[in-house]
Amino acid sequence: MPTKQKQQPAEGNSSAPTMADVGRIAGVSAMTVSRALKGNAYIAKGTLDRILAAVDQLGYVLDQSAGSLSSRRTGFIAAIVPSIDNSNFADTARGITEALARTNMQLLLGYSNYSVEREEELIESMLRRRPEGIILTGGHHTRKARGMLSNAGIPVIETWDRPENPVDAVVGFSNADAMEALVDSLVEQGYSRFGFISGSETSDTRGQQRQSGFSRALSRHGFSSERRVAVEAVPLRMSDGGTAIRQLLNRFPDTDVAVCVSDLVAFGAIMECRRMGLSVPHDIAIAGFGDYEIASVSEPGITTVNVDSYGIGTQAAGQMIAMLDHRGHSATISTNYHVLLRGST
Amino acid sequence: MPTKQKQQPAEGNSSAPTMADVGRIAGVSAMTVSRALKGNAYIAKGTLDRILAAVDQLGYVLDQSAGSLSSRRTGFIAAIVPSIDNSNFADTARGITEALARTNMQLLLGYSNYSVEREEELIESMLRRRPEGIILTGGHHTRKARGMLSNAGIPVIETWDRPENPVDAVVGFSNADAMEALVDSLVEQGYSRFGFISGSETSDTRGQQRQSGFSRALSRHGFSSERRVAVEAVPLRMSDGGTAIRQLLNRFPDTDVAVCVSDLVAFGAIMECRRMGLSVPHDIAIAGFGDYEIASVSEPGITTVNVDSYGIGTQAAGQMIAMLDHRGHSATISTNYHVLLRGST
DNA sequence: CTGTTAGCGCGTTCAC
DNA sequence: GTGAACGCGCTAACAG
Predict the structure, then answer these.
(1) Domain B61-173+310-337 adopts which CATH fold?
(2) CATH code, A175-306
(3) Which residues 15-44 of chain A have a CB under 7 Å from nucleic chain D?
């Protein structure tokens, strides 16, 4: 009977202490340590104290990978946002994190850089961690991604949008409708020669939807929606707004209001106007989207649409928790938006 | 001998497929599937194809929790930043993510909200996932946190600072020195009656260090550093800059330049000045810190210090990878900063 | 209130 | 090139 030496039988090396080590010191079994650390089981007061002392002495930290393998619950929620530089999605991520902090769930956060291919990769690598649920941005995914998602058998929540064919639950609003509301308000203010500044027409799905809302509203009012400039960059930076407004005014000098896909772009455009010696809103009015902090602080304030970025995060997390508790089922939750008229128009 | 039924013997329920399932279809053992999916082992071409087909057919996704329990490598790198709304730290997080994307490591990201207690909680919950390394912001941690960190036996990298007693490796710069450089430049520009706008004096360690650099520089030049306003909020928002500049000018009307802990605050201050009818820099000059995007786009541009937030992230990740490879050891890496004089001063 | 037993799904190690 | 056995550290299930 040869002494088969399989998988290095833990020699006297200083690897992390285990529950068994803690138990040895406290004079109990590993199982009792497990129960004591979980907190919701009956443990004799004295035993508990000895266990906690041993934990302290060893500096023991639970190994959750091992625990979740056994319990079949990882405690992970995955979330993917297009970017974290963009404060709108950062707010959503913060909302998710804070809502999750009340639970024992941990957030596994990724950002796709506005690419569905990158999103697919992220989904795959995150699913390897066996999250109990996944929160996505938007309703546009690769075929393979959709396949993996439905195969995973976990709640999926799409946010920031109202997909036509949702994978599962949805927490969001119609970007087209929100933009339409903005345009309506601007028409009411007396504007009629609208320009539109957007980013890449292929990657930024929400930007495209805003543009279709823009066109829809204008055609309803009988105005032209031809004055459009697209900057091929994603995500759009403030400085892109400067480039874009120059192009717009160059190609369509009669424009009386420029609507931008985001407040950041609008801000860049306003600053560029100042440099060009144009007064906003007197010579040209400018509106944004998203109600970033800068929109209210900037002077003049930027007319925009508040879309409750933070609330999208908390509501998505709340819906996720409900679905995991079996208290709630797949649903579509409408988040609020409202137009804010400020000094820039 | 009673039929003890332990741990639900996987009935015909639709739980996720395993390597064994894949192997069954492909006509090989689970072990061969493992090797095939790892990629770096010799597998007969035909076998490989059958395995990949089976993976596809089942929609099989590797279970990394199980894998890492066995291999003792989780593939996680943990990172904690004070906030993700603040684009400086968001840039660092992006730098880490992008540098890590080339490896097989996955980022476990948390934010402490500028609280060392919250940081301690985060460190504990992250260590439960057995990260292979951890990246922190700053050098200020609770005693317990330091204990857990050294106990964990993994590389620790502190960033954005030059701690006196680093836990392990460091990637950062001296906030005091950087601020001193800014003040020196402003003195050279002819300013002498300096004001300082900062946030909480207790939670924002880097803000405090900037303030001490501010005082040090001024005393070196023989100027007063008494003109100070602290807003008790963390993190500081743009709008806090407005409140603060009012207070500052109220209490110290002779101030000729206001130095702010961050560009966001500086921007808020500049906008408030505009509302008060003060011209920047004619009536009052204003400088920031961090070289946020807004500093270069805003009109006037904001004088500030660029501290390479993104580079801190990529370098920290690079150092981490080196340490994990045993190619590099604990080290202190200096990141660059440079003063940018713009129109606001 | 506590212990025993088994096994979560994989990778390590050795055997062929 | 491939397989068998074992165990990573923990918790479910049951027995007492």
Answers:
(1) Rossmann fold (3.40.50)
(2) 3.40.50.2300
(3) 15-16, 18-20, 30-31, 34, 37-38
